[in-house]
Amino acid sequence: MPQIQYISASEAAIKWGISHRRVITLCRENRIPNVAMLGNMWITTRYDKKNPAKPFIKWAGGKGQLLPTIRKFYPPNMGVEITKYCEPMVGAGAVLFDVLNTYEMDEVYICDTNAELINTYTVVRDHSDRLIGFLSAFEKDHLSCDEDSRKDYYYQQRERFNTEIQKPTKSNSILRAALFIYLNKTCFNGLYRVNRKGLYNVPMGSYKNPTICDTENIKKTSELLQGVTILVGDYTCIDKYVDEHTFVYFDPPYRPLTKTAEFTSYTADSFNDEDQTKLGEFIKSLTKSKVMASNSDPHNIDEEDNFFDDLYEGMNINRVSANRAINSKGKGRGRIFELLITNY
Predict the structure, then answer these.
(1) Which of 153, 180, 254, 312 lies 20 to 30 Å (CA to CA) from residue 162?
(2) CA angle, 311 then 233 then 62, to 5°
(3) Do residues 13 and 20 lie in contact, with contact meaning Cβ atoms separated by under 8 Å?
(4) Phi, psi (rounded to 5 degrees) for 335
(5) Is residue 96 within 8 Å of residue 87, measured between CB atoms?
(6) Alpha-carbon distances of 263 from 26, 194, 268, 301, rounded to whole Å
(7) What is the predicted pLDDT for the residue at 17?
C-alpha cells in the first residue's frame, strides 16, 4: 500500500496560507479530501507520493511527457532557499503540480490571460464538490448517448458554454468551469481555441469512453491549490511578487517550426515573433529570480535560425529531446528537440 502522510489542521493552515478556523470549517463541510478525526483533532492527507495529483485538463504543448527532463533543470535548493514559485502562463500546470507535489513553498502564484482557464482553477480550488456534481452529470449524459446523439450533446454544451462566457458572473462560475472541463475532455486533441469574437470553436473529438469526472484527482488538485494565489493577466503580473527566493517557469505558446504549423492558440490573437521578443526581454529583466522558459528549437528545421539563441544570449540554452509532432503528417512526428532556457 502507498504510504500516506497525514497533517493536522494547524499544519494544513500554515501550508495553505489560510486560518486554522477556515481549515476546521472546510473539514466539517467535507470540502477537503480524506479528512478524519483523531481524538478531538482533525487530520487530512498531505498527498499520496505514489499517486500524486496531476493536471485536471489536457493542453496543447502540455509538459507531462517532458517532466522527467524538466525536473533535472530545476534550480538548486528548491524548498530551502527557493521558497516561492510563479507560473505566469500556467496552461494545464504540469510543472505547477509537480512542484506542489514535491516541495513545500511559502508562496505560489499562477496566472494566465485565459479568464475561463483561471476561473476553472479557482473553482477546482474553492468549489471542488459542486464541480464534481456537474461533471458527474455531464459524464453520465455524454456516455449514455449513441454516436450521433453524443455529437449533438457536445455541440449543445459548446453553445451553452459560449452563452455563459459572454456574461461571466460568480453565479455561473462553477457551471462555466464544469463546461470548460467537459469540452476539454471531449473536444479534438484537448484544444482550447477561440475565434475573433472570443467564442470557443473546437470540434468534437473521437474518444469512445472519455473520463470527464476524475473525482479523486480533482480532490487532490483542490487540496494542493489551497493557498495558491490565482490571477487573471499576462505574464507581467508576476513582476511584483518575485524576489531572490523565487523560481519562475514560463511556458509560452511555442514559436511555430513550420509556416504550415497548425494554429492552436487559445486566444483570439496569435503569439508572434514580436511577442516572443517582448517575453524574452521581460524574462531577462528578472535578474533576482531563478527563471526557466520552454520553447521550440528552430534548429529542428533550420540550423541557421538562431532566433532564440540571439534573443536569450547570455542565458543557458539547453536543447533537450522530446516526443513532439512537427506537423500533422506522419513524417513530421517523432523525437525532436525543445529548448529549456535558464538564467542559472
Answers:
(1) 254
(2) 65
(3) yes
(4) -85, 120
(5) yes
(6) 42, 11, 11, 18
(7) 62
Residue type, 241: Y
Q: How far apart are CA 267 and CA 101, in angstroms?
A: 29
Distances in Å between the Cα of 157 and the Cα atoms of 121, 132, 186, 209, 307 are 20, 17, 11, 18, 41
Q: Where are the beta strands (DSSP E) in the chain?
A: 4-8, 35-38, 41-48, 84-87, 107-112, 229-232, 246-250, 290-296, 316-325, 333-342
C-alpha to C-alpha distance for 331 and 197, rounded to whole angstroms:
35
| CA distance to 62, 64, 207, 281, per residue, from 187 (Å) | 16, 19, 9, 35
Match 514559436 to its residue by C-alpha cell.
Answer: 255
What's the rounded mean pLDDT across residues 223-246? Answer: 96
DSSP state for residue 2 in the 8-state scheme: -
Phi and psi dihedrals of 187, rounded to 5? -85, 180
Instruction: Dig out the grid coordinates for 169 from the structure.
Output: 458572473
Q: What is the largest CA-CA distance in the chain?
A: 68
| DSSP secondary structure letter of residue 236 | G
Distances (CA, A) of 30 to 35, 151, 331: 7, 36, 51
> Residue 255 pLDDT more than 70?
yes
Q: Is 63 exposed, middle or buried (0-12, 13-18, 19+ CB in 10 A)?
A: buried
Measure Cα distances from 99 to 70, 86, 212, 307, 323 in Å. 11, 10, 25, 30, 22
What's residue 16's pLDDT? 64
In sequence order, what DSSP letters do the residues of 270-322 get, joined into one string?
---HHHHHHHHHHHHH--SSEEEEEEE-GGGT-TT--HHHHHTTTSEEEEEEE
pTM for the structure as a whole: 0.83
Q: Would you say 343 and 290 are in contact if contact means Cβ atoms under 8 Å apart?
A: yes
Say if strands 316-325 and 333-342 run parallel, antiparallel, or are unpaired: antiparallel
